[in-house]
Amino acid sequence: MPSNPKFSSGNDERRTHRLLWCAAIICTILTLAVIIAGIITFLGYVVIHPRVPYVSVINARLDRIQLDYAGVLEIQVTVVIRAQNGNEKSHASFSHSGYILSLNGEDVAKLIAPPFEVSKNSSVDFNYDVQSLPIPLDPEQAEDVEVALKTDLVTFDLKGSTRVRWRVGPLGSIRFLCRLNCKLRFHPLNRTYIPSRCTSKAK
Ligand SMILES: *[C@@H]1O[C@H](CO)[C@@H](O)[C@H](O)[C@H]1NC(C)=O
Ligand SMILES: *[C@@H]1O[C@H](CO)[C@@H](O)[C@H](O)[C@H]1NC(C)=O
To answer: Which one of 18, 33, 49 terminates a domain?
Structure first.
């Protein structure tokens, strides 16, 4: 039996309708999924009241500082940086941790840590033990260091950051950038650190 062209075209129209409906439903479901993921992230952020992670220098030590007659500087320092995760519901992943230690504008050492995890409501102390390569200073810089050694006060700049990520819900995650930018002061004679505020935590 030959098919009726009119009837078959009506069938096509219905099929097109059905396809449009399906597309509309899928769109709606996807939109809802995005909205729900957003709400979960928002609830995670606001209702759980997580505390923002931060890093801070909790201790340091100037193990060695040596300036020879040619003006070549060598240093060795230990810096203890605490990574704090105040979130009681979620682990925090710390990555890209890198800080530059400089003296009178001259970079002397790089503090680098591999990625690490901090569990819920806890902290990890990272010991950065760095030794500089011999750094040739120009006469002016060498004089500044000599003065610092004589007055028993050496001031370094510490600058850098670490990235932190919280997983929230099945899809969401919240990212932070924790920056440090502070001065580390030492008494070179007895190698001790003069504690001061050095934290990425907002006041
Ligand atoms: C989180 O840590 C603080 C201090 O260390 C403690 O007082 C508090 O009970 C802890 N909360 C949870 C849920 O473990
Ligand atoms: C290190 O030297 C400074 C300055 O002389 C002094 O104030 C400080 O108490 C000393 N620290 C220690 C642990 O001896």
So the answer is: 49
Q: Which two tokens stand for residue 22?
A: 């399906």
Domain range for 86 is: 54-202
190 lines ligand 2 (CB under 6 A): yes
Structural domain count, the chain: 2
- Least confident residue range of 36-50, 106-120, 136-150: 36-50
User: Does the beta carbon of 121 lie inside 6 Å of ligand 1?
Assistant: yes
Per-residue model confidence (pLDDT) at position 86: 87
Ligand nearest to the CA of 89: 1
Whole-prediction pTM value? 0.74
The CA 192 to ligand 2 mean position distance, Å, reads: 7
Distance separating alpha carbons of residues 93 and 174, to the nearest angstrom: 11
Residue 14: inside a domain: yes
In a domain, 69, yes or no: yes
- 55 confidence band (pLDDT: 50, 70, 90): very high
Is residue 1 in a domain? no
Position of tokens 């449009």? 20
Question: Does residue 66 register a pLDDT over 80?
Answer: yes
Residues 67 and 117 in one domain: yes
> What are the DSSP E strand ranges found in the chain?
54-67, 72-85, 92-103, 106-113, 116-118, 122-131, 135-136, 154-168, 172-187, 192-194
Q: Tens of pLDDT along 3-25? A: 555 555 567 888 888 888 889 99
